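Figure 6 in text form: structure in, sequence out.
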């Protein structure tokens, strides 16, 4: 995905779960890791859920008024806390121009 640093919009990431699971009942965080950084510690941002009939997305507002990212390439990670499990999922690359 590519966005302008002057754009303000929700970055949405699909979250897949087993049948009967409801990840949207749990806290979700999204991190943006600059190129060359593998550890998301200190980079987590509170996110919210956008739940449709058949889809679940974690989302966070990026840009002015939200999580401001300078121009560059970022790896996006999503973390859902569910009981003793805290899966961290790679959600692809974000390019900010």
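Output sequence:
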């Amino acid at each position: 995905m590519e966005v302008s640093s002057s754009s303000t919009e929700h970055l949405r990431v699909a979250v897949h779960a087993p049948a009967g699971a409801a990840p949207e009942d749990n806290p979700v965080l999204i991190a943006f890791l600059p190129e060359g950084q593998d550890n998301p510690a200190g980079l987590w941002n509170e996110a919210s859920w956008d739940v449709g009939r058949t889809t679940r997305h974690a989302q966070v507002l990026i840009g002015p008024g939200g999580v401001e990212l300078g121009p560059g390439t970022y790896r996006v990670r999503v973390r859902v806390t569910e009981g003793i499990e805290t899966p961290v999922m790679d959600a692809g690359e974000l390019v900010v121009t």
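Caption detail: The chain has a mean pLDDT of 91.
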